[in-house]
Specification:
4 helices, mainly alpha, globular, about 70% helix, about 90 residues, single chain
């Protein structure tokens, strides 16, 4: 059973993706659209229930936002694509 705090984090992550990042990323011509679709499906259907994994996804989303803001130096991975692949790798 997933605890309340983990469930809230999961919903918060989904909201960040759907309301903020996905609309921005879908407008980028250089971004692989198939990759974007795979990540979108993960957010719709396949996010993990473990707090630590969700926390890592949250940090990767923050890294993507940092890159979009011109601060790739703050990100774990220096490209949006690398961060998206890292999200997909989290099971």
């Amino acid at each position: 059973m997933i605890d309340k705090y983990t469930l809230e984090l999961k919903e918060h992550i989904k909201n960040i993706w759907h309301e903020k990042l996905y609309p921005q990323l879908s407008q980028l011509d250089f971004l692989d659209k198939d990759l974007l679709i795979k990540v979108r499906l993960k957010f719709l259907n396949d996010l993990p229930d473990e707090f630590e994994k969700l926390q890592h996804i949250y940090l990767l989303l923050n890294d993507i936002q940092a890159i979009l803001n011109g601060r790739a130096d703050l990100a774990e991975h220096s490209t949006i694509e690398a961060n998206l692949y890292a999200i997909l790798d989290i099971q």
